[in-house]
What does this fold into?
Amino acid sequence: MAFKLSDGNEVLEAHQKLVQGSVPDDLSLAALHYLKNEQEEAIDIYKKIFMDKKYDALNIYLAMCYYKLEFFDIALDLVNHYLSIHNDSIVANNLKAAIEYSSTGNDKLAKEIILNLQNYSKSSNIIDDNDLLQHNLAVFDNEPDSKYNKLKIFSNLLDIIPEARQNLIIYYLRNGLVTQAHNLIKDMQPLTTKDYILKAVVHCTLGQQGEPGNENLKKAQTFYQSIGASTTECDTIEGRQCMASCFRLTGAYNDEIIYLDSIEQYMKDDDDFNWNYGVALAMCQNYKQAEEVLSRVKKEKYRNDQVYLSWLCRCYIMNGKPDLAWNLYISIENHLVAVYILNFIAHELYRMGHFYFSFKAFLFLEKFSPSDENTKGKVSSAIGVFYLLLSEKISSDRLQEVIHYLCDGPQSLEVNKALKVFKTWGKENGIDFTDEPVLDEA
It folds into this structure.
């Protein structure tokens, strides 16, 4: 109770009164270690007790410790042993659901485990009557039409279940309510790894949204580093992700890649990981691997994002696949995003010498947004196509197509000069380019 009330002196006084070897006192000390996130110390005490007293509940206490340490297989074995004796235990079933969810991400299985408790209960409202079950069902239910009001449930349980505050902050972040997330976390003293990560994410999001100065980004970097460099987390997946995020904020992409590469085998199906890893690889000009990683992203929201599309297009172009970049642009349904990507690939294609596709891109840009720059890009790309033909890198059909579009588009002195050069060369080489405009010699 003293620990819960944050009375340090009272904690020390109570600690000194504990009798070593007394099972109740040892259990109290182990519980204190658990609450302070000192799982190894709690495990040592539980194991000593278990050597003399085969209490069934010790399986659950140990399982909770191993769950916190992310040793999910050990935790699940302990829970299953306890459930073979007490299959109607709310705590045990809830813990099993949490283990399944954390280790596999299988939210449907986790929900099923908790809902099955209704089969063992005489009460028809076992879920509604239990705060813990309500809380975790809200966490597990990630369906778009979820029947659980997460905002209401997490808000009502802030002072009852410690994780409710974390989950409410996550809810705010996922729904773009960064200010609300910051208000909830700004005075919270981080105690766990997840606390530090949430603090980092909130400050990082605030910083990237254009808050004045770089103070938020600096705070985010500090929180990420505190986890990534800690002796207990440096070799965990979360620890390495944090260190990678810290390096990203400083622009050290090569160092970021080292950490992300070390956990790739565990994160290949994670869209957020693939996004970050792919962009970092592209920033370091490893475009081949970047294309492979970015192509693994599955979420439609991400695949339609302007930033994602830009990086994937650049990888296609740098890997000599201009047709894939063009096809990706064609597939974009959002007009504003499509125009942005079109402008982006037009310049990238030209820069890399993919003149046929840069011609098509500038041709479309000229139609959407007539300007001297777009017209010059179109004509310069047409000349580039001619150069590729002279270098025997493309067939004359490509230049014929370019001529056709030039003839159908706005005429200018530059267009006419280019067409005259193409026509003259064609006659000299026995190629009849058709659809020429009538040149105005004046």
